[in-house]
Amino acid sequence: MKIQAVKGTRDFYPEDMRLRNWIVDAWRRVSLRNGFEEYDAPIFEYLDLFAIKSGPEIAGQLFSFTDRGGRQLAIRPEITPSLARMVNAKINSLPRPIKWFSVPRLCRAENPQKGRLREFFQWNIDIIGSDDVLADAECIFVCVDFLREVGLTPQDVQVRIGSRPLTLAALRSAGVPAEATDAALPILDKRPKVSDEEFRGLATEGGLSEEQVRAVCRFQDCRSMEEVRSALGGADDSEDQIGALNRLRDCLKTMGVGEYCTLDMRIVRGLAYYTGIVYEVFDAGGALRAIAGGGRYDNLLEVLGGPKVGACGFGMGDVVLGILLREKGKVRPGILAQGLDFYVIDDEGCPLETVMQVVGALRSKGASADFSYKRQPTGKQLKEANRRGAKRAVIVRPGNTVAVKDLVTGEQQDCRIEDILAGPR
Amino acid sequence: MKIQAVKGTRDFYPEDMRLRNWIVDAWRRVSLRNGFEEYDAPIFEYLDLFAIKSGPEIAGQLFSFTDRGGRQLAIRPEITPSLARMVNAKINSLPRPIKWFSVPRLCRAENPQKGRLREFFQWNIDIIGSDDVLADAECIFVCVDFLREVGLTPQDVQVRIGSRPLTLAALRSAGVPAEATDAALPILDKRPKVSDEEFRGLATEGGLSEEQVRAVCRFQDCRSMEEVRSALGGADDSEDQIGALNRLRDCLKTMGVGEYCTLDMRIVRGLAYYTGIVYEVFDAGGALRAIAGGGRYDNLLEVLGGPKVGACGFGMGDVVLGILLREKGKVRPGILAQGLDFYVIDDEGCPLETVMQVVGALRSKGASADFSYKRQPTGKQLKEANRRGAKRAVIVRPGNTVAVKDLVTGEQQDCRIEDILAGPR
User: Which of A1, A135, A256 comes nearest B360 by C-beta?
Assistant: First the structure.
């Protein structure tokens, strides 16, 4: 009986796996060099953990199940609630700021579409225990450090940076009552994704007047912090928040990534839990969904039973990123190719035992080496060595001599078998 | 509201994660140098995939759930069914032998005990498309290559090798009817784990007579292939199977891992799907559960709708292995410690911007570097540099000079800031 993979999931054949590993290895390398430590949490948690953060509606968007003890569990759709749970459990012994990263496998019960699957991997960068805009700047720096690492330029991608408090100030100064602003945020978040007409429709449904919509759009379309300042007219704490955004921009320039970043008040983020600077990374063409998104979330630890502690971070999934890297030609063939240091071949009349002895010795010294299970002509084995991407062929001959052939240059050198058994150069 | 992790799962704080990464990195490194390619499959599959391989009883041992389309899905308790599914889907285009490895996260709905959790990681090594005992030998070699890599000696661990066909021959030659042998295997598998009395009880319940039990035990207790030969008296294809075991032993010796391997007819493996050589890895003390287990399974691909293709492999979990590595003192403190190439410090009067410029430049050149968000006295920052395991401190001073301090030797050298900004040595 033949069974398929579940739709919205991916099989990683070796070539797919090499691409995934190339991305994940770069995520890890960049995180570590930016001073972040890796953590991970279980793939399933109590359903309540996700419901407390995101509201009970979240249950419909995740894979939940009941264990034999009748406990309601769910596969994680994101790792931030687990992060908050883990930090809360050791809040008094962890030196701050806590700079942690993770590369969790996540699952969401969605309808698969381009760039959106039911199972994916997501790089998470978080800094907990700092209210300083330096922490926001560092997260964005790390994000850009990765984009640069995989060859994406400021012409390929941009980090678009907005502000939750400034957006709330704009809503309030447009006359939207405080209790209605939370509901307005997901509507504003949709604006860049829908037509003007659709947006006005959504806004009206959400209870915003035409005048309010115009005022908020005027704020969102500001091209400079000066325009933002005059659009808001000193409402609420907008001066402080404008100062924070200016400082953020200066930090990013100082650290050398200013070109990758744009202030953009249309960036809102849909989730309720953000409290400060927010950002999303988009391809310059604008054809794809966001590549990454994040911001400051100062209340989450408290909501999950811990203290009120400043926190910020972002997530970057592997699906949209993978599409962009392929489109931009950044996935070089070398990344997808298999390779070996040595392929060991028996010349006519040489016993298989010698091949196995040589293979065993090479591997034990840390070199990658392989051989054919079938006794075949030397030419056929050489062909297989090439197919496997071997750098060198070791041709074992009767009488304790071997030839080492460089499969790139074609050069061949004789040596004694003892030299090979003593370990690769 | 405070929520805990689900029992039987693990939170990986950075130190735990470094241990896990040390193990997983060694699994990967050893797999690649032995010529295996990495693959992965989704974390959930159709429940049927597992039920076809292991029988409908398996449903009680795994976490299953229904998606919005009413499909019965389950979190994978093992990856072999997914492997067989993936290989079957591309059986005609994959060059054989297929040598693949994976390090899947797996979940089982069990009661947590020492060495047995509800979520764990398992290294899987498989060779598909070869009937040759060379393939079995290579799997065992890879297993030992890893054990050696992490510092375990033949005095610490042994691969105990048995034979499913010889065990079946022993059952039949003891007079157990062919249709009853499958049910007898899980009972024999339990023998090393229970007292003699309990074992006889289980065997009697399973329909074996006292005489049959004695005969099978005589076979299982054989200390040499000569004893096995005389115990079986040429039953069925036992001569061929004895030949295969002898060849396996010779291969392992030739490849240099003979000392790690023992033939042991008490090794049976509980699962029904094995068809040839089987093995388990145990700590020499015998205090722990098996560290790894595997064998030949020539029918699985066919059962899952593919062709009949020879296959063999093993799995090694991270839980028992982790306990053993700690007990044997193989987890050196260096493995668990964090580290940084540079910690950048501002001496009195130096602007923070210079620190950030230096940090940004070092990271952009690929070095790991960090700094303090708080302006603190130099001594306090040096202390933090040490806590973070930094190799060197870069002390930035007013007037474009810096001092680089080696935090191991204490040596300090002055240099120009341009030299640092040009990238680390």
Answer: A256
